Amino acid sequence: MDDLLSKIAGGYNYIAYITIMMIGLYAVIAKRNLVKKIIGMSIFQTAIILFYISIGAKKGATIPILMHDHGPEAAEHAIKAADYINPLPHVLMLTAIVVAVATLGVALSLAVKVYQRYGTLEEPEIQDQINKS
Amino acid sequence: MSEQLPAFIIVAPLIGACLIFIAGFTRRGLCYPLAMVSMVVALGSSIGVLHQVLVDGPLIYKLGGWDPPWGIVYNVDALNALVLAVVAAVALVNLVASRQFIDAQPFYRIGAFYALYILAVTGLMGMVITGDVFNLYVLLEIASLTGYALVAMGDDRAPLSALNYVLVGTIGASFYLLGVGFLYAMTGSLNMVDIAQRLPGLYGSTAVFAAFVMIMVGIWFKAAFFPLHSWLPNAYTYAPPPSAGLLAPLMTKVMIYVMIRMMLTVFTPAYSFSFGLLNQVVVWLAVIAIVAGAIMALAAKDFKRLLAYIIVSEVGYMVGGAWLGNRLGMTGSMLHLVNDAAMTLCVFLAAAALSFRLKDTKLTSFQGLFKTMPFTMGALVIGGLSIIGVPPTCGFFSKWYLISAGIQAGAWGYIAALLFSSLVNLILFFKIFEIAYFEPFSAHGHGHDNGGHGQVSALAVREAPAQVVVPLVVTAIGLVVLGLYSKELVAGVIDLGLPLGLK
Amino acid sequence: MKKLALILVLLCWGFLAFAAADFPRLGDPNSPASTHLSPYFIEKAYEDTATPNIVTAVLADYRSYDTMFETTVVFAAGVACFLLLRFYHFSEPPSHLYRHKPSGTVIQVPRGYRLKGEHTELEPIDRDWAPKDPIVEVASRILIPFIQIFALYVVVHGHHSPGGGFQGGVILGASLVLLAISRDLRTAQATLGESKNSILSALGVLIYVGVGAVTLALGSNFLDYAALAGLMGVDQVIARNLGILFVEVGVAVAVMATMFLIYRNVASAGALDEGL
Predict the structure, then answer these.
(1) Do B143 and B120 form a contact (C-beta atoms < 8 A)?
(2) Which of C71, C72, C237 to mutate to test the interface with B (most CBs of B within 10 A)?
(3) Which of A128, B134, B398, C41 could potentially form a cystine with B335 if both were Cys, beta carbons 3.0 to 4.6 Å apart?
(4) For residue C243, which residues of chain B lie inside 8 Å, CB to CB?
(5) Interface predicted TM-score (ipTM) of this complex, two decimals
(6) Which chain C residues are Cβ-neighbours of B190 within 8 angstroms?
(7) Which residues in chain C are contacts of B159 at CB distance < 8 A?
(8) Do B22 and C198 touch (CB under 8 A)?
(9) What is the pTM of this model?
(10) How many beta carbons lie within 10 A of that of residue B428, not counting itself?
(11) CB-CB contact of B113 with A75 (8 Å)
(12) How far is it, in rounded angstroms, from Cα B142 to Cα B124?
């Protein structure tokens, strides 16, 4: 048990992202205001982005942009994988960020539409209006 | 050229969607023809790829020319070639039926509507064809984003239902993405085949187990598997006819296919079926899904809502069948996936046709429809019989496979649930037919004519426009044809796609 | 409801934290993620594509199919926002407002009446409460060109430094949004009209897919930029390098146009009038 606990604590970056993610999830489930729910959704997605970026980290390495980039000279310097961090999570997260922005845009336009229809963004009030009609 | 065929499946609709959106501002008349052309090309190349796969075996298409696992590849085997053809065919048939509705929208929306429709199809087909787990997420988001917007175009509560769908759908997709991240952290790869090769050494790891659970839960969110189905009934009830006709048959089915693919290709049956307890829990969840869907459908007063709950129940069939852990169950699940796409298309097209002549789709307003809309109701009867599972129609055969699989696995609860839901479907559809056929329609009769019951036959036939009825009748005939050829479909296609190790 | 949510969230937290125990430590150079695919990318990217920024090389070449759909997602969101919110006014509003530029006075003209002749000193506005602030206006007028030049630099320099199509496209889009915020949506509308805006967003995706279609037409696999070598008279490595540039331009156009399309529809709830 102690072993497991120390292992969990050793992965503090994972604990951090899990906590952020759960804050987002809680907001989506428990908040009554639709825009707050959308914010929760955004937090949730951001936490996953953090997780991916933390996978890409490598001790003693720098950003994945080669330093000697002038034509033939570059070939002379042997490029060592250990010197640069893993580029793949960054690539994936560029995509995920764009997806998150796109989702946020659509969610906000839906919120605008809901507001136009009901005049409020509070879920209980909307529910009241639906029950009345 | 034929080795480039897989690329056309995705490229044609993607180019089509961009051109349609441009045409929406410059030449509106071109929107529909462009949409048709891109769907026809997509369907043609899907069928071509299916043929190639059946003749030459599974194919790999390297995008950008990069070898896997560094680049992204298409992995096409018999199963996803079949699903691709089904998706393209359903989308094409529904597109024909949608024209009447979309062209009646305000003029500035027409281009955007067609563009989103085609983009949604692109996303769905891309999800099926790709061999990369992260690429699947991106395409899943395309299919979902367009789906949210298409659902929200309905009236009344549609935007609210769509917003709810956005929240739940995004959580689902994020769970999937998180699972992919777990897999990447543990194996360092994103290619499905490569992950499958690197996983066996890690089978004991809790992180891989968590990845498996996260991916499955994410997919179940999107597939509306029972406790996670809350978004579906409202979304499909309030969605406009073209969107409902596209999303209801395809979205959940494609997600079920993705689940099967994850179980077979990425985690392999050896891992997926190694947790005795988990398998049983999922099958029991499926049982609850089937029963709950059936009961909620019984309580529904609106035709579209009833259909939506039937979908919840059908998702239970397929998830349960896939998790029984034997070859028959997987076969039944795949066959039911194909059949259910066709059946759902049929009944939702019928709902679309009805919405042209009825003010609402409440069951009580169905009185006398057999007289006024004979073709629509005829097709609905075939669709209903298929959902119930009556022999010449396709629904019977897949249910037969599922029940045999249940017997083989000894899952008596699952069999009981299948029979119970068939019984409920029987009651549901005969209730509809009774209202539409037998019930004396005093309420309507008083409106026109002289109000007497003797005047019933004087009701004129008022069918929906031919553009809707023809695709509907074609789909209904397709249900019978699918049923007649289901043995060939199983032996010639589905069986080839299942891994040999699965007994 | 709230308690239930809390219990659910805590259970989920526990499950994920339990799973995290198996993960490699932060920054571990021997983690599977750092040893399986990434060494190939780091060591070969320059050889294959002549692009020192490995992220760009992986994004727009090795995984360019992903990036194509990333652009498509943005485009789809733009189309979705347009479809959801946009509506056209067909009836004339009850009154038109004009601002006298030199004095700042607002004139109201009731429906059915028109101003006679040309009035260069009067500008049509949508809301009289939107104040006209010369400081904001002049400051943004100076800033916007620099922002746009910087955006172009980010787009084309993505091969050598952090940047690329998305980043540059977003900065370009932000410059348009700044114009719309600092003046009003009407002014921004005059700079980039709605149909032009929409066509640009589709065009960006078309440029991307078009590059792929050209490679298909040349008989190579979709998005295999090496096929462009013969067409442009360069070797395959430089062809890949240029291919990356082409698609980055497509991405930048699509993202710029779509960001503004989303902004204009969401900010004005689809009416495309005063904005915010």
Answers:
(1) yes
(2) C72
(3) B398
(4) none
(5) 0.91
(6) 37
(7) 84
(8) yes
(9) 0.92
(10) 24
(11) no
(12) 8
User: Where are the domains positioned within chain C?
Assistant: 48-91+132-267
Of A14, A81, A108, the CB nearest to C266: A108
Residue of chain A minimizing CA distance to B175: A48
Of C20, C66, C74, the CB nearest to A11: C20
Instruction: Number of helices (H) and strands (E) in chain C: give both, helices first.
Output: 11, 3
- Identity of residue B66: W
Q: Supply angle C-alpha C261, C83, B172, rounded to 5.
A: 90
Of C34, C59, C76, which has the smallest distance from its Cβ to A86's Cβ?
C34
On whether residue B354 sits in a domain, the answer given is yes
Residue identified by tokens 């929200």 is B152
Kindly report the number of other CB atoms within 10 A of residue C150's CB atom: 15
Number of domains composing chain B: 1
B270, with CB counted inside 10 A (0-12, 13-18, 19+), is middle
Outline where B410-493 has alpha helix (H).
Answer: 412-437, 442-447, 466-484, 486-489
- Shortest alpha-carbon distance between residue B119 and chain A (Å): 14
Enumerate the β-bridge partners of residue C122.
C100
For chain C, 276 residues long, give each residue's pLDDT as a single digit of tens: 788 889 989 998 888 888 887 888 887 888 888 888 888 888 888 888 888 888 888 888 899 999 999 999 999 999 999 999 888 877 767 777 787 877 778 888 887 777 777 777 777 776 666 667 788 888 988 999 999 999 999 998 888 888 888 999 999 999 999 988 887 787 788 888 888 999 999 999 999 999 999 998 888 888 888 888 888 888 888 888 888 999 999 999 999 999 999 998 888 887 777 655
Task: Report the candidate in B348, B356, B350 with the shortest Cα–Cα distance to residue B247.
Answer: B348
Q: Phi first, then psi: give them for residue B331, nearest 5 degrees.
A: -60, -50
Query: What is the gyration radius of the CA atoms in chain C, in angstroms?
Result: 25
Cβ–Cβ < 8 Å for B5, B48:
yes
Is residue C75 within 8 A of residue C201, CB to CB? The reply is yes
Four-residue CA torsion sign, C84, B147, B120, B39: negative
Neighboring chain B residues of C88 at a CB cutoff of 8 Å = 106, 108
Structural domains of chain A, count: 1
Nearest Cβ partner of C80 from A15, A22, A106?
A106
Beta partners for C95? C110
Assigned domain for B157 exists: no
Q: For residues A95 and B136, is the Cβ–Cβ distance under 8 A?
A: no
Torsion of CA B61, B64, B65, B68, to 10 degrees: -70
Q: Give which of B123, B174, B160, B115 is closest to B144, Cα–Cα.
A: B123
Query: What are C34's two structure tokens?
Result: 């750092």
H runs (alpha helix) in B262-302? 268-272, 276-299
- How many contacts, defined by CB atoms under 8 Å, are there between A and B? 70
Phi, psi of A66, rounded to the nearest 5 degrees: -65, 145
Write out the E strands in C9-130.
95-100, 106-110, 122-125
Q: How open is the CA angle B65-B81-B96, to the nearest 5 degrees?
A: 110
Backbone angles phi, psi at B118, to 5 degrees: -70, -35
DSSP 3-state of B69: coil
Q: Which amino acid is at A35?
A: V
Domain extent for A44: 2-132
- The whole domain housing B476 covers 288-447+457-503
Chain A residue set in contact with B, beta carbons under 8 Å: 21, 25, 28, 34, 37-38, 41, 44-45, 48, 51-52, 55, 88-89, 92, 95-96, 99, 102-103, 106-107, 110-111, 113-114, 117-118, 126, 130
pLDDT tens profile C93-111: 777 778 787 777 888 888 7
Q: For residue A66, give the CATH number of its domain.
A: 1.10.287.3510
Question: How is residue B338 written in tokens?
Answer: 């194909």
CA–CA dist B478, B476 (Å, integer): 5
